[in-house]
Amino acid sequence: MADSSFMVSPFSVTLETDDEYIGSLLRRESCFLHPKLDSSSMESARPDVVRWIMKMKAFFGLCSRTAYVALSYFDHFTHRTIDLTKGKRWKIQLLSVACLSLAVKMEERRGLSLTEFQTENYWFDGKVVQRMELLVLSTLEWRMSRVTPFSYLNHCSSKAMGWKAIELIFENIEAMNLVAYRASSIAAASILAAQDNERLTQKSLKSKMSSVPWMRSLNSDEVFSCYIMMIQESQEKK
């Protein structure tokens, strides 16, 4: 029988805390917070955008962060300029190409030609994609360096927990508008949902958060909302 003094609780192997680093991430997150707007007009189109980005991720061997950042650009752009793409399927697909192209430039070591990012229904000239890229850049005020949940999960002392949290994020990303939740809230929710314990109540989740220094400053309501969404979506897919 193992010596119980060397056993670690499931929750204590979440994140190694570096107060200065985590603090800088949380401050950077605040730069991307915007007033709540009605982006319901994009709900029907967004799943197709997510699937196309994930398809390109697999085809080109892109990293998970690149796919996440591309979708973050898409969500934040449409959050600010809903009318621009409303009811315009070709514009939505052009925007998808531009967002993924920008994410590749920011996150990948190797570049890809703009003409390689083509959708099934449309072919876009490189100059057209570049013009959309400039529109995205100006709309997002050239703030292209994004804090992602992986910035927090990189410090996970349990690799198994970290990978499970990442899987949960991508399993549920179709239902997770990245404007609605901070990256830190998504990271916290995915860690909590990745555990094999029974479903947490809002009270028990808040208690768990209070035991992890970097989570104490997070909005527990937002984390709980994201956690519940992940749990429900995962259950529906089983």
UniProtKB/TrEMBL annotation:
<dbReference type="InterPro" id="IPR039361">
    <property type="entry name" value="Cyclin"/>
</dbReference>
<dbReference type="Pfam" id="PF00134">
    <property type="entry name" value="Cyclin_N"/>
</dbReference>
<dbReference type="InterPro" id="IPR013763">
    <property type="entry name" value="Cyclin-like_dom"/>
</dbReference>
<protein>
    <recommendedName>
        <fullName>Cyclin-like domain-containing protein</fullName>
    </recommendedName>
</protein>
<dbReference type="InterPro" id="IPR048258">
    <property type="entry name" value="Cyclins_cyclin-box"/>
</dbReference>
<dbReference type="GO" id="GO:0051301">
    <property type="term" value="P:cell division"/>
</dbReference>
<keyword id="KW-0131">Cell cycle</keyword>
<keyword id="KW-0195">Cyclin</keyword>
<keyword id="KW-0132">Cell division</keyword>
<feature type="domain" description="Cyclin-like">
    <location>
        <begin position="51"/>
        <end position="138"/>
    </location>
</feature>
<comment type="similarity">
    <text>Belongs to the cyclin family.</text>
</comment>
<dbReference type="InterPro" id="IPR006671">
    <property type="entry name" value="Cyclin_N"/>
</dbReference>
